[in-house]
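Quick one, probably user error.
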């Protein structure tokens, strides 16, 4: 069987499915764009509903031909393999859905009819029978129709087996049936949307595009078990989907003019009479459902949405009691959609004119009502804000009276209890009600994936009722330290950020554009990251939107905001992104080959050039602050600037590899289920450098002692090292090889190892004096053949990832050394006052200074930024920031020994259980001492030498794939990551127990 022919037919079928034939037919006959109408589906039913009969007939004929062609081609090319004819319908339907935005049912039905008429007819008859039974069960309506359609799809393989009794054909039909069913579940229903009146319940799963965001969110809360009053949603809609087609009044004189207009257009009186009759039936139905007084509320598309609230733009009317009052309230509510103020609001917010649904609920006789914010609406701080008044919540929202204002701090469990205990019982609101409101606010925010909520509530004497919940729109975007804390940890200076931000944002933008294609055109990837309080944050709002576009589950936002695990994406939602994901997969698969090509043609020549220039002597003086150098010229500074710009050009492609490489490795490890312990990390710079230094320490010790257990003083080892040119040469060679590493590999403001030879010489002597090398060789794992095959799929990528990391770090080190040379020139020219000043400038400011050719002073700018950085280093940095302002919380002393359990939960990183005493290590050059548990703010390659001397590791940030976790596992050191604010919560000498298997730190004193 020629595989090339099969591949060609599959590609041709997908391409045929991708052609927007139905969309073209509707454009030709009605000049309308189906993508902008109704549900946005470009299907046959949408063509009839929105394009008219001619457009619908043309669409049917086009889709019939499209469904028949692949089947005929398959039967012609492979007469002895009929299953291929069915299989060709799968890429056809996938292309139709993913690109042409259709459902593919018409194509599949006619394709199967040509393939086997008895089979197709049997499947059709079965679908009609199921429809009849469903109507008996649910009554006539969309639910029965959709159920029959889905059953018809899923039962097709059975009829294939009955009539054909061929396993390949059965499997092909099963794949087609599952794809059609998944598409059917994911697409909207234009037939249901086209009905003139719809009545939904808050107990239903509601579509915000039809019922409005307010009703959709209340529906979600009610079905999740929150106390939401029962409610019904009335959506009034005529033919088409434009808001100008709405019937906004069904009783007054303007309705008569509407009837006369429709008669002139030939629509007839019968249809209008039926329409008026249906409204009357609905009103009667509503009054039957809600016996007592009623409130009528707006629920427009875009109202209470993620980016707009439309607060106060539309009317709420109540209480109403009679049918005539209810009808009048509905009409007044709908008419409020078209007031000049509401229209101007939508124009200003760039919201389209769509529709006004009406939410009808029982009127709650409130004793107390109000609003509450699940977070401080000013800065997103950890305070729940409650405002309350006697009576209805509209008084608080209206702003005409001053309500009771309460602020409850929940930054820690203890602070929440303290805040509640401090409140006295106000004259209108009891402390027990406040506690219930706090619980509800936190639960609702958690339900909406960590998005701060503006909640309207009511207390009727027995229950707290939730009347409305919407995002606090001014607390956007959301910024998260998730991922950012590992990519570039700690406080960041302006020069580092001005270089790293465009590199990182540019690469992530390129990756997302590959996946999203044209859908990425409206996204601003320059806003992917920002600095808040001198610390890096990623834009969780933008990433959440990207996740939704990619079809990933809602838990994606919880992963960014709250560290929750992401669920599996539903097939129907991810289908539109399959072409883009496939393009990304292709790039990932080609990464090894592309990197090796660029390594030979770009990176190695670049490093060779840089090292040759360094060998000519300019960079050696950088490491000697008191070195004499001639007065620099602006010509020389311009050459250094050009060199810095060139290094950044080389950094662009290696940054792409440095981001995509680890992602690809993580995906491969997940797919092939490869454990971290299986992978050999010998080539990782942080591992190789430490092993080389340990080997040198062994040689130094052997030169000092005759027996391995003999003790030797640090002074004797230092003397032997000073008197041994061979050992000094080896140490220099080690420093030349690994001197590009630093505590934070991504921060060029942090000194490299090469700039601190005395620190690592002292470490070498300390290693030799202790005589404990921790040289752990990874033994044979005894893997099975299948496990070895899976490991092979990941090991090569792990090696390439380490090579990428080395080149990336080397280029950054050369960039740092180049800036140090510029700074040395600036110091000589009195542009800078002291060493390190240059890192408080942005790269654009350095460019402007050098290109201007004039002497400038950055003294005030540098002083201001230095003071700000020092302040930001000591302030608590929240894991999530809501809006563009850090919460103005006071610095708090955290003494966890007062907690009830004295156990802090983190992420387990390396198994083992150790008791010991804490040593706070804010830099990698800290003297750890004997048998200490190292508590570090973060871990990077540069921390490896320090961590090896620890009995256990506690890190503020990081996960199981962080540098610290890799080192800990490699050397069997117990480790716990992600202990928030560990360097301030713990103290030097404090006794703790670290359990690297459970991921806990227990305070023993």
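Nope, works fine. Designed sequence:
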């Amino acid at each position: 069987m020629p595989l090339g022919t099969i591949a060609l037919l599959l590609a041709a079928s997908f391409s045929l499915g991708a052609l927007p034939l139905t969309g073209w037919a509707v454009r030709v006959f009605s000049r309308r764009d189906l993508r902008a109408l109704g549900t946005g589906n470009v299907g046959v039913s949408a063509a009839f509903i929105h394009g008219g009969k001619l457009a619908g007939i043309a669409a049917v004929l086009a889709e019939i031909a499209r469904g028949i062609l692949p089947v005929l081609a398959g039967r012609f090319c492979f007469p002895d393999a009929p299953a291929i004819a069915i299989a060709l319908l799968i890429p056809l339907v996938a292309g139709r859905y993913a690109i042409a935005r259709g459902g593919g049912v018409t194509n599949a039905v006619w394709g199967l009819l040509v393939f086997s008429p008895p089979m197709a007819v049997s499947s059709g008859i079965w679908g009609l029978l199921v429809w009849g039974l469903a109507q008996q069960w649910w009554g006539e309506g969309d639910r029965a129709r959709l159920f029959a359609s889905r059953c018809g799809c899923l039962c097709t393989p059975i009829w294939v087996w009955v009539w054909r009794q061929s396993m390949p054909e059965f499997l092909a039909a099963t794949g087609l049936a599952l794809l059609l069913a998944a598409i059917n579940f994911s697409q909207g229903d234009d037939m249901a949307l086209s009905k003139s009146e719809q009545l939904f319940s808050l107990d239903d799963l509601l579509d915000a595009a039809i019922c409005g965001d307010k009703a959709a969110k209340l529906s979600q809360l009610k079905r999740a078990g929150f106390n939401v009053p029962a409610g019904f949603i009335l959506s009034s809609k005529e033919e088409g989907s434009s808001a100008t087609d709405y019937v906004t009044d069904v009783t007054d004189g303007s309705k008569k003019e509407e009837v006369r207009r429709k008669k002139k257009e030939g629509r007839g009186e019968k249809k209008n009479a039926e329409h008026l009759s249906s409204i009357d039936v609905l009103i009667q139905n509503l009054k039957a459902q809600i016996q007592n007084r009623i409130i009528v509320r707006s629920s427009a598309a875009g109202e209470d949405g993620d980016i707009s609230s439309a607060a106060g733009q539309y009317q709420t009317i109540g209480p109403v009691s009679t049918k005539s009052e209810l009808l009048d309230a509905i009409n007044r509510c709908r008419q409020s959609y078209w007031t000049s103020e509401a229209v101007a609001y939508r124009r200003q917010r760039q919201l389209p004119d769509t529709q006004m649904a009406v939410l009808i609920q029982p009127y709650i006789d409130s004793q107390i009502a109000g609003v509450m914010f699940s977070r401080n609406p000013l800065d997103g701080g950890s305070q729940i804000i409650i405002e309350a008044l006697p009576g209805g919540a509209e008084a608080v929202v209206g702003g005409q009276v001053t309500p009771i204002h309460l602020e409850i701090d929940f930054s820690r469990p203890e602070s929440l209890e303290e805040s509640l205990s401090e409140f006295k019982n106000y004259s209108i609101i009891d402390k027990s009600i406040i506690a219930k409101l706090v619980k509800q606010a936190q639960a609702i925010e958690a339900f909406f994936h960590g998005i701060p909520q503006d909640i309207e509530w009511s207390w009727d004497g027995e229950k707290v009722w939730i009347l409305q919940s919407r995002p606090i729109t001014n607390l956007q975007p959301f910024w998260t330290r998730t991922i950012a804390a590992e990519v570039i940890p700690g406080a960041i200076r302006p020069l580092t950020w001005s270089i790293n931000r465009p590199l990182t944002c540019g690469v992530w933008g390129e990756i997302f554009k590959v996946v999203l294609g044209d859908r990425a055109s409206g996204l601003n990837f320059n806003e992917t990251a920002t600095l808040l309080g001198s610390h890096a944050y990623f834009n969780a709002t933008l990433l959440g939107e990207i996740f939704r576009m990619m079809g990933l589950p809602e838990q994606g936002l919880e992963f960014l905001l709250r560290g929750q695990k992401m669920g599996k994406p539903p097939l129907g939602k991810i289908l539109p992104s399959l072409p883009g994901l496939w393009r990304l997969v292709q790039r990932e698969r080609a990464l090894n080959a592309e990197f090796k090509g660029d390594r030979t043609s770009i990176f190695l020549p670049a490093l060779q050039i840089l090292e040759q220039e360094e060998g000519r002597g300019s960079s050696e003086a950088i490491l000697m602050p008191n070195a004499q150098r001639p007065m620099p010229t602006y010509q020389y500074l311009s050459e250094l600037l050009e060199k810095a710009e060139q290094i950044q050009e080389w950094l662009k492609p290696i940054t792409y590899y440095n981001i995509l490489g680890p992602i690809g490795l993580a995906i491969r490890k997940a797919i092939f289920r490869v454990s971290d312990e299986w992978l050999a990390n010998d080539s990782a710079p942080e591992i190789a450098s430490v092993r080389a230094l340990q080997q040198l320490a062994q040689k130094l010790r052997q030169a000092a002692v005759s027996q391995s257990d003999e003790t030797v003083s640090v002074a004797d080892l230092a003397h032997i090292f000073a008197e041994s040119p061979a050992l000094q040469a080896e140490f220099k060679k080690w420093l030349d090889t690994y001197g590009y590493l630093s505590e934070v590999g991504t921060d060029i403001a942090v000194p490299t190892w090469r700039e601190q030879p005395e620190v690592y010489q002292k470490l070498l002597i300390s290693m030799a004096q202790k005589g404990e090398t921790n040289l752990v060789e990874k033994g044979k794992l005894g893997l099975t053949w299948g496990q070895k095959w899976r490991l092979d799929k990941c090991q090569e990528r792990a090696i390439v990832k380490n090579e990428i990391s080395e080149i990336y770090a080397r280029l950054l080190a050369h960039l740092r050394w180049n800036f140090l040379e510029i700074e040395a020139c600036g110091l000589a020219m009195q542009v800078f006052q002291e060493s390190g000043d240059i890192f408080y400038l942005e790269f654009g400011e350095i460019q402007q200074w050098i290109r201007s050719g004039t002497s400038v002073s950055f003294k005030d700018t540098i002083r201001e930024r230095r003071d700000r950085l020092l302040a930001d280093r000591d302030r608590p940095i929240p894991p999530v920031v809501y809006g563009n302002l850090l919460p103005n919380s006071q610095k708090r002393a955290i003494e966890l020994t007062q907690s009830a359990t004295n156990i802090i939960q983190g992420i387990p990183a390396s198994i083992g259980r150790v008791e010991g005493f804490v040593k706070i290590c804010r830099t990698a050059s800290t003297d750890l001492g004997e048998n200490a548990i190292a508590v570090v703010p973060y871990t990077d390659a540069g921390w490896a030498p320090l961590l090896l001397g620890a009995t256990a590791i506690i890190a503020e940030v990081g996960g199981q794939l962080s540098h610290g976790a890799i080192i800990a596992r490699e050397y069997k050191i117990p480790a716990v990551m992600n202990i928030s604010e560990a360097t301030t919560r713990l103290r030097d000498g404090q006794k703790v127990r670290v359990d690297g298997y459970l991921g806990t730190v227990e305070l023993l004193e």
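The mean pLDDT is 80.
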